[in-house]
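Help! Submission page says 'invalid entity' but I think these are all valid:
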Amino acid sequence: MSNTNWENKKAIWALKRHERHSEWSRKPKSERIILSIFFVIFLIYGASLIYPIVWTFYNSLKTGRVFNSDQFSIPWPAYWKNYEKAWSSNVRGVSLVQALWNSIWITLVSVTLGLISSSLTAYVVAKYHFKGSGLIYTIAVFIQIIPLVGGITGMYQWLWGTLGIADKPAFIWVIWFGGYGFNFLMLYSAFKSVPWSFAESAFIDGASNFRVFWQIMLPMVKPVIASLFIVSCISTWQDYTTPYLYLPSFPTLSLAVYDLQADASHIGVPLYFAIIIISMIPTLILFISFQNLIMDNTTTGGLKG
Amino acid sequence: MEAAVRALPPRKKKKWNKKTKDLVFVFLMLFLPTLQFALFWVVPNFNSLVLAFQLPSSASGQFSFVNFTRFWNELTEPNSSLFYSIIDTLVYFLITTLVNLPIVTFLSYVLFKKVPFAKAFRVIFYLPAILGGTVTAAMYRYMVGTGGPVEKLLTAMHIPFNAQLGLLGNPETSFTMVLIYCLWTGVGLNMIMINGAIKRIPEDIFDSAKIDGVGFFREFFQIVVPLIWPTLTTLLVLNMSGLFCTYMPIMLLTPNDNRSSLIGWYIVRYTLAAGDGSSNEVYNYPAAVGLIFTCIGLPLTLGVKALCERIFKDVEY
């Protein structure tokens, strides 16, 4: 059984390869030349993006002394101890383990809150006709494109000075409960495309507004929520400015990479490289497992505005 | 929907009719997010506006134009870092948007035309966006750093550079290195969006172009560009609106370099200095600078948006 499966797959691959090949040979000669030239350019550019990761990784397997004398030698025997030592490095007075934990909770709390808030607002604005629903949508689009320079100054003074909630995790989460940003626009169009007839029949059966939202409409946009969740997780994981500005005593891995670059020669560059590699692993895993979902989501993002 | 509701026998037990209940529901759903928006978007921005017009270090918040006078003085003083920041911001815009967008648009078209291994390239080009700013910038610093691969390459090609200061440390080359970083990492995200837009063009348009004998470049300029114009407009407008707020590349690569900066970083730097308390800086000045650039950027962004929308009108397919 599995054998025939395998045979089938092989046949499909052969067919696809043949198809690609004939598609290529059907192209006019001039086009094939242009594409070949660009293939080489792409190859060089692609290599320039991958090479630093490889270079960083193999240099993370050296001792500081070996790295300082030669950045290009093969790390043999590999000094894996950097990955052990990395966890106890000091970032703003806490260990890297604590920074990992900060990354995890900040990512989960901020992404979850942002999605809850946006789905509440997007649902009612997309599905209920009330005074001002159109205005809310217009404002949400407008604030995405208008350049408000210097808002950061007002925010900084507001959070540190007036409210005094900066650097206090018990309070700072409120800044993540934003319901009118990018997620709002994405969820708005998702809810718009769900037919209202499902809700109608539920209303006839006596369901309440909230139940219709929670049990009928929300599950319909689950795929959109899932992809927004993954994409936001990646962007929050990378974000170093929010912790830098508003949670400085709770450094994340990303902030650790930013902060420690000044100390790198002090703690040993290869050790710093090990921290870089550790911090990129979670996003790389997420990206590899949800590659198509992430790229398609970004594509639809291009539609807005 | 209303017809369906009306057809039902009236439910007497319920005190509220459907319309009131709907309104209450809408109110409850919007209440917390809107409160959050008011407190953490409206108030901070309004706060910046008020700060800009306040006399610094006056408890009563006296109205004053002194922050704007300071802006003018900083701008016109010799070797003004503010003046250089403005020039650098414009150069940054030229390179990362006006140069980057056309190139990336063309590269996306090449990718769409099935360059071999197009799928793999799409993924690889997206890597900087996945790894994020801190990681990519940290790796870039070492790539161009002292004794690193780029310096090795330059030596091999006999291109002179200041080995003592390093490419990023030398004020003569540091901003160029920042721009190269932005170009190097700035392909993937735009490419995904433009490539997606090209893919949405119906295939029969390309088929009939092929029958008419339209060549590679003509197809790009006369078919692809007009049809994906709305996406290009969106990208241009988003880049423009973020222009005076951008501070990431400087913060990541050359935060201590006073010569090369961007307006966004100029504002952040003064804001942090004010929050620090160790200097005499105040929030009022960066707030005023922000307000001035909002007033410049807003009409510019909206104007460009209107202009772009007029170039290729009524693109529908």
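Support: the input was valid. A stray whitespace character was the problem, and the output above is from the cleaned input. Chain B has one domain: 68-311.
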